[in-house]
């Protein structure tokens, strides 16, 4: 299985989130996918965005250099290469998910795709941010900045390669949240991000994850929020006050760390913002910034769920309860706490894949391919995951096991 994580594209540019678990060894095999077709929107004009004040800053779209030329085969084995697919071509808009039958559900132990007939030559290991060396952290940050210098392949010359990810998540958000697709869609989304920074930015490692359960007592003191200009993701926002919030996000611009004054191009033009806070009723006495939703006790409750539907509802949050109320989960509370760009899903892509992986490994025979209706939406392992031309269309069944190609990775646990 894989490590589960949340990828904060804006607040934490593609840093993952994990909870930790033991990963059993199992047989591995290959998955296949077909290319996607999409009609891309016209690229809007690019307003002036101030750049970060140092030579290590990220250029705006007006100063994008030529794309890096990196040979995928020069540093990685065959199972690590990008899945083949035709370039996105103009055509009609495709739904993110397509169920073959509106009433179809699946067995908890439905077998993998018949095309699964290969094994991983090796299993790569993803580490928690604190377990990385200084050099590994710097390499990751450098690769993210590289993605912000390359030109977009989806949105035209006014955008960056980094914006392609933000665009796809933003435009897909209503079709991938509060429904069964939430977990498999984000699993492949984060994997393709890792693959693309390896292939296009020569990233040498695997994407890290953030185990926020280690920081539940005071999440604002997590080493994630370091102001180090080389390896820090920056602290809380600055410039709070009248006239300092033109985007009405109730937050301030992040002015330190490696992503100081990081320019955001989609869905609006601004700079990266944060505001560490939590308002009632999410904030409860005795629980700092909603820690009751991601502390060890609540994570045990989530992992104790015996079926996919109950598990995903407690993990993601915002599902309507029998009494008509809605409750948050670790996924929604992290959005709310970070503030700024994070609370609005149109401004931030995120992923929780590790928690799902931990849950799967606790009963692999029954849970590896368990994918059930959730929130009133049907589910089939033949549902298609669509990434609007960023990646080939892929069936849900082909992303359920990360110890099989093309994934071939697991998370390192303490």
Describe the structure.
The chain has 414 residues and is an alpha/beta fold. 21% of the residues lie in helices and 7% in strands. The strands form 6 sheets. A two-stranded parallel ribbon has the order 1-3. The protein has a two-stranded parallel sheet with strand order 2-12. A two-stranded antiparallel ribbon has the order 4-7. Residues 4-116, 242-248 and 342-350 have low confidence and may be disordered.
Note the main sheet. 2 strands, parallel
Overall 3D form:
globular
Q: Which stretches are poorly predicted, pLDDT < 50 over at least 5 residues?
A: 4-116, 242-248, 342-350
What distance separates the N and C termini? 16 Å
Average residue-wise pLDDT? 68
Keywords: Copper, Metal-binding, Signal
GO molecular function, one term: metal ion binding
Pfam family, one: Tyrosinase
Signal peptide: 1-22
Quick description:
The chain has helices at 134-147, 161-176, 182-201, 296-303, 308-316, 330-338, 354-361, 364-367, and strands spanning 16-17, 124-126, 209-210, 252-253, 263-264, 270-271, 273-274, 317-320, 326-328, 384-385, 394-395, 409-411.
List keywords for this structure.
single chain; 414 residues; alpha/beta; di-copper center containing domain from catechol oxidase; 7% strand; globular
Please give the structural blueprint:
Layout (H helix, E strand, L loop, with lengths): L15 E2 L106 E3 L7 H14 L13 H16 L5 H20 L7 E2 L41 E2 L9 E2 L5 E2 L1 E2 L21 H8 L4 H9 E4 L5 E3 L1 H9 L15 H8 L2 H4 L16 E2 L8 E2 L13 E3 L3
Parallel strand pairs: 1-3, 2-12
Antiparallel strand pairs: 4-7, 5-6, 8-9, 10-11
């Amino acid at each position: 299985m894989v490590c589960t994580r949340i990828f904060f594209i804006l607040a934490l540019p593609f840093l993952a989130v994990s909870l930790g678990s033991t990963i059993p060894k199992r047989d591995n095999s290959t998955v296949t996918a077909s290319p996607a077709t999409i009609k891309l929107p016209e690229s809007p004009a690019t307003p002036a965005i101030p750049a970060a004040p140092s030579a290590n800053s990220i250029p705006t779209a007006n100063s994008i250099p030529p794309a890096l030329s990196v040979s995928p085969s020069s540093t990685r084995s065959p199972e690590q290469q990008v899945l083949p697919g035709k370039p996105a071509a103009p055509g009609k808009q495709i739904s993110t998910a397509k169920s073959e039958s509106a009433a179809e559900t699946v067995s908890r132990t439905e077998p993998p795709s018949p095309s699964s007939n290969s094994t991983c030559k090796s299993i790569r290991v993803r580490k928690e941010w604190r377990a990385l060396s200084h050099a590994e952290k710097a390499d990751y940050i450098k690769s993210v900045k590289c993605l912000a210098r390359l030109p977009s392949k989806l949105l035209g010359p006014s955008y960056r390669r980094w914006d392609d990810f933000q665009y796809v998540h933003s435009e897909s958000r209503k079709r991938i949240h509060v429904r069964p697709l939430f977990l498999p869609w984000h699993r492949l989304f984060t994997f393709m991000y890792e693959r693309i920074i390896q292939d296009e930015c020569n990233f040498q490692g695997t994407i890290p994850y953030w185990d926020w359960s280690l920081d539940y007592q005071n999440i604002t003191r997590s080493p994630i929020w370091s102001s180090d200009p080389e390896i820090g993701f920056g602290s809380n926002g600055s410039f709070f006050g009248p006239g300092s919030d033109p985007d009405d996000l109730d937050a301030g611009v992040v002015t330190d760390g490696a992503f100081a004054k990081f320019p955001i191009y989609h869905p609006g033009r601004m700079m990266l913002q944060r505001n560490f806070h939590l308002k009632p009723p999410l904030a409860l006495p005795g629980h700092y910034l909603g820690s009751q939703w991601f502390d060890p006790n609540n994570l045990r409750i989530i992992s104790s769920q015996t079926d996919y539907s109950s598990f995903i509802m407690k993990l993601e949050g915002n599902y309507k309860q029998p009494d008509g109320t809605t409750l948050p989960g670790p996924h929604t509370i992290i959005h709310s706490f970070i503030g700024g760009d994070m609370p609005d899903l149109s401004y931030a892509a995120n992923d929780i894949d590790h928690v799902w992986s931990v849950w799967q490994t606790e009963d692999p025979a029954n849970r590896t391919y368990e994918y059930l209706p959730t929130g009133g939406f049907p589910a089939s392992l033949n549902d298609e995951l669509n990434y609007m031309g960023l990646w080939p269309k892929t069936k849900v069944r082909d992303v359920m096991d990360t110890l099989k190609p093309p994934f071939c990775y697991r998370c390192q646990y303490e």
